[in-house]
Design goal:
It contains four helices and three strands. With about 110 residues, the protein is mainly alpha-helical. Helix 1 links the parallel strand 1 and strand 2. It starts with 8 loop residues before the first strand and ends with a helix.
Length: about 110
């Protein structure tokens, strides 16, 4: 797998985005601490990342992870499932076709 020596991944904390590497870490089943916003219209549901916008959120998320080491596999599986549900070709291609058709129709 990618990230063979990684047990968890810390994404960008200071920006309300999720970088591609964080998405790859989710796909590999790694717990991710990120500044990804709770709300938005990019996805039906936000990714299952541990919140990390503020220093308090980062501390809480990391503490929760280290206090619940036995849940890391479960957290990782939920991230991989979220990626499959939101980034698989059979999900993305129809959405892109819809977007392109809308743009071309204007």
């Amino acid at each position: 797998t990618r990230f063979p020596y990684t047990t968890l991944f810390r994404s960008q904390f200071d920006k309300p985005i999720n970088c591609l590497v964080a998405l790859e870490a989710l796909a590999c089943g790694k717990p991710v601490v990120s500044g990804f916003p709770d709300k938005g219209d990019a996805y039906p549901e936000p990714p299952p990342v541990l919140r990390g916008f503020t220093t308090d959120q980062i501390e809480q998320s990391l503490s929760r992870l280290f206090e619940n080491r036995d849940k890391w596999d479960e957290i990782g599986r939920s991230g991989a499932a979220w990626i499959a549900a939101n980034h698989a070709m059979n999900v993305v291609v129809p959405r892109l076709i819809e977007i392109y058709a809308h743009v071309l129709a204007e």
